[in-house]
Amino acid sequence: MYLTKYLKCAKEGYLEIEDKFGMTHKHALRFERIPIDKTNLNGDQPKGMIPYIDGSSKSCIELCQQYVQKIIDGLNARFPDLCLFNAAKLFSPCHYAHDDVVRDSNAKRWLEILVSHLQPNNGANSFTQQVLNVKACEMELYGFVDMLRLNCEGYTMHEAWRMFCKMKDWHDSFPNLMRLWQSIMVIPYSTVACERGFSKQNVIKEIKRNRLSIEHLDDLMRVSLNGPETHDMQWDRVFEIWKDGKDRRAI
Asked: Omega of the bond prior to 228 within 30 degrees of 0, cis?
């Protein structure tokens, strides 16, 4: 977004800024050489190999691209599963490009990333060998993407899955990619659900409820986390079940 805005300003020759009071200020752009130490970019190069970067728009664009790429590389290194979740766009038509060539190229790259993350590490017992046929996925890929785009343009992965998960002809036509899609859907994208469960457990099983059984705690946690909501409960029925559960003395 900011790069696009900069390019527009560079083309017009001035930078337009709006302050907090809504006043617009224009500043003329002046392109100058930027002194640079090559060793700061690549340590194996001798110092002074490139004494400057010219101040052209092209150089600024290249610097922006390098900056963004370093951020992406840093995030991928910090969160190794990030590539996997980005590649799941293969099953998300809302991320498909309008251009056919770009869309097919992205689909191929996404499938390669998914396969590489699920690649076998332990021989014949691996997920890839037992469930995923890589070659068959590659053969189904372009037809699958075209059909998904035509039928679910603008849909998210979950919206598209709800539409096609029960369609037998899709499972018959694209059996391998449908299995891969189903597997991607059950991969937890964070530990939030686990942390929420532990928090709920600590709320329910407090120190005064020391006789609460594991089974009862499990039931209470399921209801608390997954519902139903209190206003949907049939409280008369709940009371009858509680009353008939065992002999109780009147208060």
From this structure: yes
Q: Give the separation between CA 179 and CA 172, rounded to whole angstroms.
A: 11
Q: Is the dihedral of CA 210, 216, 218, 221 positive or negative?
A: negative
Q: What is the pTM of this model?
A: 0.51
* DSSP 8-state symbol, 121: S
- Give the least confident one: 103-117, 127-141, 156-170, 216-230: 127-141
State the angle between helix axes of 157-164 and 134-152 in degrees (0 to 180), rounded to the nearest 10: 100
Residue 35 phi/psi, 5-degree rounding, is -60, 140
- Per residue in 35-71, pLDDT (tens digit) is 665 554 455 544 544 555 666 667 777 777 888 888 8
Domain spans in the chain, listed from the N-terminal domain onward: 2-78, 82-185, 192-231
In whole angstroms, what is the distance from residue 248 CA to residue 102 CA?
Answer: 71
25: β partners: 17
Residues in the chain: 251
Element (H, E) at 156: none
Percent of the chain predicted with pLDDT > 90:
17
DSSP alpha helix (H) spans, the chain:
2-12, 38-41, 57-78, 82-87, 100-117, 127-130, 134-152, 157-164, 168-173, 175-185, 192-204, 214-226, 235-244
Closest CA to 179 of 152, 144, 147: 144
